[in-house]
Amino acid sequence: MTPTDLSERQYFALFAKRTGMYIGDTSLGGTMAFLVGFEQAARRYGGPGLDGWREWLMAHHQVGSNLVWEAQVMQIAFPDWDGGWDLTTEREAHALKVLFELLDKFLAERDEAASGARP
Predict the structure, then answer these.
(1) Which DSSP state fits 4?
(2) Where are the alpha helices (DSSP H) in 1-119?
(3) In contact, 70 and 63? CB cutoff 8 Å
(4) For residues 71 and 52, what is the distance between their CA atoms, to the nearest angstrom?
C-alpha cells in the first residue's frame, strides 16, 4: 500500500507515529506547518484537505472563533494558554498528542458523514 492508497485518517495516523520521518523533527511548529502545507496542496489539487477542521474545533470545544486552528488547538491542550508559543518539551509533547487526537476524531467523523453512516 502506498501513501496515495491511504485515507487521510490512515495517513495522519502514520504521520503521528513517526513525525520525524516525514518532516525531519517532532516539533509542534513543524507539525503545524506541515498540516498547513497539506491543506494548501489539497485545495490546489481538489482534495478535501482539512475542510471543516477549524469549524469542527469550534463546534466541539470552547475556543475563540477569531483564532486560527493552531491557536484553537493550543486553547484545548492548555485551557490556561496565554498565547505564548515557547513551550517546555513536556508541554510541546502534550500539545502534539492533543493535536493528533483531535485530528483523528475530526477525520473519523468526516469519514462517517461522507459514507452516510450515522455516529
Answers:
(1) G
(2) 8-17, 19-23, 28-45, 53-60, 69-77, 89-115
(3) no
(4) 16
User: How would you label 59-97 residue by residue, b for 16+ Cβ within 10 Å and e otherwise?
Assistant: eeeebeeebebbbbbbbbbeeebeeeeebeeeebeebbe
Nearest to 76 by CA among 56, 50, 102, 52: 102
Q: pTM here?
A: 0.88
Q: Are the C-beta atoms of 64 and 75 separated by less than 8 Å?
A: yes
Evaluate whether 34 touches 11 at the Cβ level (below 8 Å).
Answer: no
Residue pLDDT tens, the chain, 119 long: 676 788 889 999 999 999 999 899 889 999 999 999 999 999 999 888 899 999 999 999 999 999 999 999 999 999 999 999 999 999 999 999 999 999 999 999 998 888 876 55
